[in-house]
Amino acid sequence: MRASRFFISTLKEAPSDAEIVSHQLMMRAGMIKRLGSGIYTYMPTGLRVIRKVEAIIREEMNKSGALELLMPVVQPAELWQETGRWDKMGAELMRVKDRHGRDYAIQPTSEEVVTDVVRSEIKSYRQLPLNFYHIQTKFRDERRPRFGLMRGREFTMKDAYSFDRDVAGMQKSYGVMFDAYVRIFNRFGLKFRAVAADNGAIGGTGSHEFHVIASTGEDALVYCPSSDFAANMEAAEALAIGTRGAAAQAMEKVPTPGKTKCDSVAELLGLPLSRTVKTIALTVEKEEEGKVSKQYFMLLLRGDHELNEVKVGKVAGLAGHRFSTEAEIEEVYGTVPGYLGPVAPRLPVTVVADRTAANMADFVCGANERDYHLTGVNWGRDLPEPVVADLRNVVEGDASPDGKGVLAIERGIEVGHVFQLGTAYSASMGATFLDENGKPAPLQMGCYGIGVTRILGAAIEQNFDDKGIVWPDALAPFELVLCPMGMDRSEAVKTQAEQLYAELKAAGVDVIVDDRGLRPGAMFADWELIGVPHRVVIGERGLKEGKLEYQGRRDAAATAVPVAEMVGFIKGKLGR
Amino acid sequence: MRASRFFISTLKEAPSDAEIVSHQLMMRAGMIKRLGSGIYTYMPTGLRVIRKVEAIIREEMNKSGALELLMPVVQPAELWQETGRWDKMGAELMRVKDRHGRDYAIQPTSEEVVTDVVRSEIKSYRQLPLNFYHIQTKFRDERRPRFGLMRGREFTMKDAYSFDRDVAGMQKSYGVMFDAYVRIFNRFGLKFRAVAADNGAIGGTGSHEFHVIASTGEDALVYCPSSDFAANMEAAEALAIGTRGAAAQAMEKVPTPGKTKCDSVAELLGLPLSRTVKTIALTVEKEEEGKVSKQYFMLLLRGDHELNEVKVGKVAGLAGHRFSTEAEIEEVYGTVPGYLGPVAPRLPVTVVADRTAANMADFVCGANERDYHLTGVNWGRDLPEPVVADLRNVVEGDASPDGKGVLAIERGIEVGHVFQLGTAYSASMGATFLDENGKPAPLQMGCYGIGVTRILGAAIEQNFDDKGIVWPDALAPFELVLCPMGMDRSEAVKTQAEQLYAELKAAGVDVIVDDRGLRPGAMFADWELIGVPHRVVIGERGLKEGKLEYQGRRDAAATAVPVAEMVGFIKGKLGR
């Protein structure tokens, strides 16, 4: 490609609505252009990256035996009604009526359509397993679109759907996709981590997220550096810290006026925060025969620990819980928030203690009386043994659940997700096959997504500096830029530029020659901003010594390379 | 590809709603699957063809200097309101509201968005010319979707938009695109014709349509076999037939009771139809200072000729015309439809005669009296000379407007369109650039579309037989199918099949081996229906003589080819 025939449009300043670095740099590099809230045109430079992402995904999906098809963007509401998602999905699902008043969804994902395709095509177990995927435009009407391609409304996604005859088959298909994803993210050249995830609302029996590691990432990833344990914060199991010691103190009520937080209580009492316990009051409403009854729960956590709401929802009896209101707290505990505690509540409540809180002795908690806490509290002696559950977020240094070391935490950006769906969709849509005995059975499904356009944002959040983007070779809009200095003045430079350009193209290098006639500073600034990973400068002075200047995007200085060796040198840099 | 790992799903019968052969065959071959009215999933076999179409388009567009970007499917209404198309387009434009109640269009085309991109990016004539294209999903809410991919609602289209500083530049860009289209359709391997077209509602100054030739085509294409004249029926100029002879008969009123059509009048009078003239009464309403006034026109055509409404609309004074009502005909001519004629109407009317009708002598026309016609009518003698205009569709045998022969007519399916838009969009959207004198000028635009998914239907309408589809090599889902006979019984067949499969893949042939273990009849029927253009059969009997059977999809019989020569033989067939 010649820069004079390409469309390059860089900006010195990012627009003010670009809050994060990847959004700022993509706008400044002219890769995307805003059309509306969360809706972008992918300009030629940006589209080149998208096509590279897509090509790698496609190759690895095909290699794994998945078959590409293309499902529509506009999908009849009837299918979404069959699974109940037409109602469940709320305002995020963009809905549209046609000229006859019929309802359609603009697809945010395609479980319904693929299940509809398969239920009419698959008759027998002999046709299984099967894995269909597509790379398609999707729309999610986000409440607050932002961060450029990271949380846009219109985006491109690869979604794949596997169909198997039994759970073992589904797990095998899942494993094949997991391995394909590892190959895909390795080929992208991004640092990433696959973590176990909670299955959430979609249901099913197992899932992993693929995260691009970046200090700016929204998600906390938990992993064990000395084993292969990795999970997201929602899913990472927190083991008990320590073992319960013997009671050494008597329980005592102490005045703590105005101290409603564990840290201020600990400070007042001159104790470490880890000697305190915080109490969270929950209410679960149940309706039976038209009557609503309320059950009250008290959750206990060590003062320095954080509640994990996903884990709370999994405790027996706590599905559908909510935080208790102040009125309920007054009624049940006879006090105000900030002084709650598990000792002798006014009404009967179920006390659920986190594993670590359940292991504590001589601890401090609220006294169920305004301006008072209890010290020296001990399970079994001062109050009954609690229900014990994993309720908290892990912290750095926790023991790894696999017993093989201690946990570390890093930040990540979710760009892929693999799910074991089981029969969540096939059952509601009647997608069955005939098994070996001629009996209908529901298809066992898996689904597997990669946010194609999101990859761009995530890759930049991981790879940038103060000059701009630093693309990994595999994703760069161009692998190499050739910068001739004074091409219009120097015949020698021009001839060498044309020759090297031709040789690099012949060697399969994705090269752009900057023949725009810009001054060196402006030329270099453009390519550093755009993030082309390799640069060769052709100058008259160097040519006199038979040399060209190579500089990697992250290199501090240039390397002089003899003209005749440059193509081989570049191939070496690109690992070819 | 191995057929056992691909998804092949053929049908003996097409669904009853498939009216035309391409729709029937695509459904039977399992290339598409209906999701809703005019909305299809492209199944793996169909998507392979689409990808081949897209790849050829992309290569030739890039070669011509056009730059690929990707504009959104969901587009803000504001842009469509700027050009007035939000109101003009009616129900075909699919409209959607987001969660905040803002209006969006699901794009049927992208003139507005690309003009918006360019008006903010282009400052100077130095940045021109520029040509942006994308290949994207589009939606048109057709009143009556049918014919499968030929008139679907969701479809894929390549649309390109050129931007130039002046008309000469626009025409040059147009010529570059025209040439690219010729290369594209040649590479598809389809018989096609580029014809001059009317610019229609989109406005502008010149356009051509690209049609795939097919006897089932909706459109009539006019061309001159001995020159390069070609136009669609709307645009093809009709010259006068013959020259006017001298009057030889006296005008006479003859009774023609119940004969309201030219052919029945001619039959009654024992004259050729070409001696009759038909009269069409039109009304044009004009509003001035709140008052509506009516003007009446009479169009005259030779009895065997057809009116061309596009041409009528271009006659001075006839913009906005409509057919006169029976009440108006009674008022103006004092008679009923069927007996109208240009001689002595009751009220003053403008008589416009087609060039050929204006050349007639001693002709027959209505007498403006029920059950009577006039014979021996002559211009100048019996009535004033008419306004003369081209009003009719050409017919086979007409003189070519370029004076180089006579016209022929064939049927075609429109799959591409190139337009000179001029400033139709740039003016309404304020898309200007600064010219050499630093003055703002509107961009001169062209637009260029190819119906990607429609190509599939058109290619099939041109290439099928009673067994199924006959793809040209360049578009076939697979170039060649390898059919081993009794692979499971014969080790020799299996070994040979695997070896040839590997060799063909290594030679770059897009080959599928049918390892499904079907019986020959069923296997062959599948591939003939799917339309794979080349087939090699591996059988035990042939192998004993060192031979394999090659059969082209259109060949009447198979050709025995020595095993060692087969790869070279196939490469020859594929022109490699």
Automatic annotation (TrEMBL), chains A, B:
Its main location: cytoplasm. It is an enzyme of class 6 (ligase). Its EC number is 6.1.1.15. Residues 33-472 form the Aminoacyl-transfer RNA synthetases class-II family profile domain. Keywords: Aminoacyl-tRNA synthetase, ATP-binding, Cytoplasm, Ligase, Nucleotide-binding, Protein biosynthesis. GO terms for molecular function: proline-tRNA ligase activity. It holds the Pfam family tRNA-synt_2b. SUPFAM superfamilies: Class II aaRS ABD-related, Class II aaRS and biotin synthetases, YbaK/ProRS associated domain. It is found in: Cytoplasm. InterPro entries: aa-tRNA-synt_IIb, aa-tRNA-synth_II, aa-tRNA-synth_II/BPL/LPL, Anticodon-bd, Anticodon-bd_dom_sf, Pro-tRNA-ligase_IIa, Pro-tRNA-synth_IIa_bac-type, Pro-tRNA-Synthase_IIa_type1. It catalyses: tRNA(Pro) + L-proline + ATP = L-prolyl-tRNA(Pro) + AMP + diphosphate. HAMAP family: Pro_tRNA_synth_type1. Belongs to the class-II aminoacyl-tRNA synthetase family. ProS type 1 subfamily. Homodimer. Catalyzes the attachment of proline to tRNA(Pro) in a two-step reaction: proline is first activated by ATP to form Pro-AMP and then transferred to the acceptor end of tRNA(Pro). As ProRS can inadvertently accommodate and process non-cognate amino acids such as alanine and cysteine, to avoid such errors it has two additional distinct editing activities against alanine. One activity is designated as 'pretransfer' editing and involves the tRNA(Pro)-independent hydrolysis of activated Ala-AMP. This is Proline--tRNA ligase. It comes from Massilia jejuensis. The lineage of its organism: Bacteria, Pseudomonadati, Pseudomonadota, Betaproteobacteria, Burkholderiales. The gene is proS.
